[in-house]
Design brief:
Blueprint lengths: L7 E3 L2 E3 L3 E3 L14 H12 L4 E8 L16 H16 L3 E7 L28 E2 L13 E2 L2 H20 L4 E6 L4 H6 L14 H19 L4 E7 L10 H14 L3 E5 L30 H10 L3 E5 L5 H9 L5 E4 L1 H5 L3 H8 L11 H16 L2
Parallel strand pairs: 3-4, 3-12, 4-5, 5-8, 6-7, 8-9, 9-10, 10-11, 11-12
Antiparallel strand pairs: 1-2
Helix pairs in contact: 1-2, 3-5, 5-6, 6-7
The chain binds flavin mononucleotide.
């Protein structure tokens, strides 16, 4: 019996296996509205039978987009465009999830395939970014406008409105994006949060905004929806947020109604930066990108809290993924680049792990032909 292909029940939703498609920005929406590309992209992973398919970082307000072409769910037109994709994913026996996001001081940037550069606010495609403090991400980035208390409260409400819309279009899994230097992460990290009021200062002050969002969203979506929270477990930068902080946060997120902590890392200085290890030692590029390099973060959350955890980052091999679940290092694995390379990764992993000898996981439209293919393959052996 494969651990990777065992189901997982979270509140009112059962995931058929432990494989999630990590949120993957496609920078292909128009005014935040999903396009045929989104249907094609996400439906492929549903046919590939990941247990949980996350929609990309979906902005809760226009200013919360990373790029002008990010997906949004701040209005009904956007929600209506998402609905058929949700319904198709469910029709494949797969669970759709949505990542709700505010880009904060990393907003108003060009897509990676357009150069990833910040877009100035006086450019027709740009806008003024906001953050906890007037501290720019780095060289070339705009200085964010410091959010007022009213501004913070409005964003908490925007998360609630977006989550309500998400439930209305059929999502039973919602992830709050608290990683990669975006708004919630920038409130958590002492590098970007230099506020003197109740939303800054010690870790309790810096956690306040994220916990307010988590509590408000839990209250709005009810008890049956599974809530994930993506953290940057470490800033991996001197004087930054560290793994002990993440354990403190996870325990508070648990009280706020979060079910799963999705353990990513980095991003406070721009792209995912890995400068120092958890012990403060400089990292080489290769040691920061070894297979499963972020798994220890998910393992600590799983072992030191009552929460479920999801591991992500260079999980590429079915045996590696199976071991992560089987060894109790995480409850779920999320795949990004590897599953973009091979969207049928879960179906192929099931073959490798002998979890689907008769191709029963395949959609019926494919199963009969894949059966024949197998017979022919054996005949030609
Ligand atoms: C094209 C692309 C888009 C991404 N978009 C998001 C996103 O919307 N939200 C997010 O939290 N992470 C995003 N990420 C990070 C991934 O979710 C994942 O954490 C990262 O790629 C590491 O996993 P991997 O090694 O399996 O690719 C993105 C990564 C890629 C490659």
């Amino acid at each position: 019996m494969s651990a990777l292909f065992s189901p997982l029940t979270l509140r009112g939703v059962t995931l058929p296996n432990r494989i999630a498609v990590s949120p993957l920005c496609m920078y292909s929406a128009v005014d935040g509205v999903a396009q045929p590309f989104h249907f094609a992209h996400l439906s492929t992973f549903a046919r590939g039978k990941a247990g949980l398919v996350f929609f990309e970082a979906t902005a809760i307000s226009p200013e919360g987009r990373i790029t002008p072409n990010c997906l949004g769910i701040w209005n009904d037109e956007q929600a209506a465009a998402i609905k058929p994709i949700v319904e198709f994913i469910k029709s494949m026996g797969v669970v759709p999830g949505i990542q709700l996001a505010h880009a904060g001081r990393k907003a108003s940037t060009a897509a990676p395939f357009n150069g990833s550069k910040p877009i100035p606010s006086d450019h027709p495609d740009g806008w003024q970014c906001v953050g906890p403090s007037p501290v720019a991400v780095g060289e070339g980035f705009a200085t964010p406008v410091e959010l007022s208390i009213d501004g913070i409260k409005k964003i908490v409400n925007d998360f609630v409105d977006a989550a309500t819309r998400a439930v209305d279009v059929g999502f039973n899994v919602i992830e709050l994006h608290g990683a990669h230097g975006y708004l919630m992460n920038s409130f958590l990290s002492p590098i970007s949060n230099q506020r003197g009021d109740e939303y800054g200062g010690d870790i309790n002050g810096r956690m306040r905004f994220a916990l307010e969002v988590a509590r408000a969203v839990r209250e709005a979506v009810g008890e049956d929806v599974a809530l994930f929270f993506r953290i940057s477990a470490v800033d991996s930068a001197e004087g930054g947020w560290n793994m002990d902080d993440s354990i403190v946060l996870s325990r508070e997120l648990d009280k706020a109604g979060i079910d799963v902590v999705d353990c990513s890392a980095g991003g406070i200085y721009g792209g995912p930066s890995f400068r120092v290890s958890d012990e403060g030692k400089p990292l080489t590029k290769s040691s920061a990108r070894a297979p499963g390099f972020q798994v220890p973060y998910a393992e600590r959350v799983k072992k030191e809290t009552e929460l479920h955890s999801m591991a992500v980052g260079v999980i590429i091999d079915p045996l590696q993924a199976e071991a992560i679940i089987d060894n109790g290092q995480a409850d779920l694995v999320a795949l990004g680049r590897e599953i973009m390379y091979n969207p049928f990764w879960p179906l192929h992993a099931a073959q490798t792990l002998q979890a689907d000898a008769d191709f029963n996981l395949w959609p019926p439209q494919y199963k009969w032909a894949v059966d024949r293919r197998e017979q022919i393959r054996k005949l030609n052996e």
